[in-house]
Write the structure tokens for this entry.
Amino acid sequence: MKLRIHYEGTPYQLLPGETVLAGLQRQGVPIPSFCRTGVCQTCLVRATSGRPPPSSQVGIRETWVERGCFLACQCVPDEPLEVEPCDVIKTCPSRVLRVEKLAANVLRVELEAPDGFEYRAGQFLQLERDGGVTRPFSIASLPGSPRIELHVTLRAGGAMSEWLLTAIGKALTVRGAFGECFYLDNEPERPLLLAGTGTGLAPLLGVIRAALASGHRGPIHLYHGSTSREGLYLWGELGALVESSPQLRVFGSILAPGAAIEATSERWQLSHQPIDQLLLADTLDSFQSRVYLCGNPDLVQRLRKRVYLCGTPTARIHCDPFVF
């Protein structure tokens, strides 16, 4: 049986099993979307009448849930809904201040921090450039900094990443912030266990910077994985951070078997072991730790399950899978 919803007062029919996003887009309504998995939160809308299914509100802020907000890409409604665009997401003008190539396929992009744009270290935002091109990127910088730091994977033909290469001084729009992968500053003794691949390092670095800035006293262990040595693109900066932070240890995983591994210190090490093996062999107490997992979605899902089975409570496992 077809279900009728209203979007901004206009009625639309949904096919059986069809999401709100798919149904509206099929009928020509320009709802913004990107990942279609509920991760990027680009398709957030609001129900003014009717109750969206709880599965369409997983991962969004409780205050947004209370206002009826839901993810259109995850919503297969079981009752009629009155839907409108969501107004809870802050949208601010910004501009590109600096672009630095950290590796052959990784850019560090620094944006002007807009007045009133609030985020927590480790969350992500959405960038929109001219032409309506929108992409989500995790935040590596500290809240309150005059610049917002992003790590961007440079993709051949990438509508956003290749544009950013020559975008210094150009205007764009910032939306957000989104995501649960942020540092909690009320647990200064809690062990922190962080693992990520590729530019999944960005939100993890944000968490580490926030922890160190707040005087975190518990041990912090970071695991960064890549297929190549160059993929560990901030290895030197991480080493300097280890030298100045006695509670921090950093481990790099390089899958390429022939890659050279230079001598490092006890708290700053390279290995050919896969990142999941290194993480699961960590000496930190799994039950006591707070765990952050970012990057490749298959790895994030696999590690989430395994650290849970090792004893980490679900409430202390935070994930940011990068869905392309």
